[in-house]
Amino acid sequence: RYYSLTLFRAISIYAPEDDGNDPNGYTKFLCKGATYDKDTVLNTMTEEQRQYLLERMALMEGYQVGRITQL
């Protein structure tokens, strides 16, 4: 769904402004320290760029390593 889109366009769909998100801020966060920018098409990224992107998304979304416990 997102592979042929630019990073900014993909984030605008994933985290739309209509839902109270800030696609510009989100994209800037994802690009900080990266070798890609908001206009990079996702399917042109190298494996290293994709990995960095996923790490930045996990930080943005508040991912934490943990354990699932049955209640």
What does this molecule look like?
The protein is built from 3 helices and no strands. It is mainly α and 71 residues long. The radius of gyration is 13 Å and the shape is globular. The termini are far apart.
Keywords:
71 residues; 3 helices; globular
Query: How many whole angstroms does the radius of gyration measure?
Result: 13 Å
Q: Report how far apart the termini are.
A: 35 Å
Coarse structural class: mainly alpha
Q: Taking all residues together, what is the mean pLDDT?
A: 94
Low-confidence stretches: none
Largest sheet data: none
Per DSSP E runs of 2 or more residues, the count of β-strands stands at 0
The arrangement of helices and strands along the chain is HHH
What percentage of the residues does DSSP assign to strands (E)? under 5%
Short description:
By secondary structure, this protein is mainly α. Helix content is 45%, strand content 0%.
SSE arrangement:
Elements: H1 7-14, H2 23-31, H3 47-61
Helix pairs in contact: 1-2, 2-3
